[in-house]
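EI: anyone free to look at a 176-residue chain?
SC: sure, send it
EI:
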Amino acid sequence: MVKMTLHNFISKLNWRQILLHFAAFWFFIHAFQTLSYLYDIKLIDSVRQSKDQDPIEILRASGTSMSTLTNFVLWTNVSGFVGLLVAFTISLAISFKRRWFWINALIAFILSYLLYRFDLLGWMYLRPFFWYLGQQFNNSIVEFMLNGIILMAIGLLIFFLRQPNQFIESKKLLTV
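SC: here you go
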C-alpha cells in the first residue's frame, strides 16, 4: 500500500493542467448548451419573431404546448452538465494515458461545476463574441450548429493539441 503524504500530494498538483482543463470544460459546457437549442428550432424561431410582442401569446399562437416548452427548458438546462461530464471523462482519460495525477482533473471538474451551478462562468458577457460568427447566417439551424461546433472544436484543441499538453508537462514557465 502506497502512503501519500500531504507534501507528496501537493507536489503532484499541476495548476497548468487544472487551468487548461478548466478552460476546455468551459468550452464543452457552452458547446453542449448551444447545440441543445437545436432540440426545438421551431420554438426558437417563434420566440425570435416575437420581438415586441408577448412571448407567451406567440407560443400559444404557434401551438406550443407546456410539455414542449418544459422539455425544451429541461434539455437546455441539462445539456451544460452533460457537456461537463463528457469533458471530465476526456480529461480523466488524458490524465491516465499521460500518467498525470487524476486529482487535477477532479479539481478542474469541481471548480467548473461550482461556477456553472452558480452561473459564474461569465457566459452572458462572452456569448455575443462566441456566437457572432453563427449569427451572420439567417438560419437558426446553421447558427446554432456552427456556434456549437466552434466551441466544441476549441475545447477539443485545448485537450489534444501538442502545445497545451507540453505546457502542462513543462516544469518551468514558457517564454516567448
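EI: Residues 4 and 163 are 31 Å apart (CA to CA).
SC: 👍
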